[in-house]
Amino acid sequence: MENLTLDRLLGYVAERNLKDGDALPSERSLAEALGVSRRDLRGALASLEAAGRVWRGVGRGTYLGTRPLKFSASLSSLRAGSSPADIAEMRLVLEPAFVELATSKASPDDLAELEKCARRNAMARDDDEWQQWDHRFHLLIAQATRNPAIIALMEVVNGMRMKPTAREKTADQDTRRHFAEQHQAVVKAMIKRDGATAAARMRDHLLNVQWRIPAQRE
């Protein structure tokens, strides 16, 4: 149902020719317009938010595009001059520690959602679909830490990765399949509550990501 809701939502945006910066209707109005439940709509919006395609602010509503710099003071300094290699290096330092913490704090629902996300990742048909589920996977791990600072930082990292010059491509199916297997290995370790192994599997994954990114600066 989540994929159907996402398809309907993207169709709604396309039919109305909505652009980055445009506001979406309230959840209630949008769910009624799409003929879906608010729960399914929230899941679809969460996927788009993780992929940097919408942003939500408390008391502000939901908007298309990435979060504007004026609403994310830390984003400008992190994004300025960052190459794909810079971002990959930062992720390699941070994310294994995030997943180790998440392993100790994740709820059963968190783990079930991560497992589901990893499966969807494995079924991605192209780079755009891969990126959607990949960004959601890494954000879900941050959310499982229950640490607002880590969650905010991961949202910023996902936003940085959406820049055309900073986006790492997973264009071939073999690469996508390999990365999906690594995501699944991370989740398996988390389900066993083995934080050290989960961190090691995440480190292996991010080393693979880093290896595939040219070292040149922008």
From TrEMBL:
- Domain HTH gntR-type, residue spans: 1-67
Task: Provide the alphabetized UniProt keywords.
Answer: DNA-binding, Transcription, Transcription regulation
**GO molecular function ontology, one term from the record:** DNA binding
Q: Does Transcription show up as a keyword for this record? A: yes
Record SMART domains: FCD, HTH_GNTR
Matching Gene3D superfamilies, A to Z? GntR ligand-binding domain-like (1.20.120.530), Winged helix-like DNA-binding domain superfamily/Winged helix DNA-binding domain (1.10.10.10)
Alphabetized Pfam families for the sequence: FCD, GntR
Which InterPro entries does this entry report, sorted A to Z?
A: GntR_C (IPR011711), TF_FadR/GntR_C (IPR008920), Tscrpt_reg_HTH_GntR (IPR000524), WH-like_DNA-bd_sf (IPR036388), WH_DNA-bd_sf (IPR036390)
Q: What is this protein called?
A: GntR domain protein
> What is the protein's species of origin?
Caballeronia insecticola
